Amino acid sequence: MAEKGIFAGLPWWVKWIAVPVLVLAVFGSLIMSVLGFVIALVFKALLLVALIAGLIFVVKRFTGSSSSRGGW
Asked: Does the UniProt entry include the keyword Transmembrane (predicted)?
């Protein structure tokens, strides 16, 4: 409710344009660094999952083919 009291007498462009621009100017680098960290974390997690899946695939393929031929 305090928001409506602060922005009550101001034009619409102050609430919808000026305030977000000021927030981005002040906290933009913080927002971008947090966003970059989250994107890097998701990318690394997906890369880890893909590498583990590839390892499992390769191990099952080679152990399955060697056991069917009598192997070691």
From this structure: yes
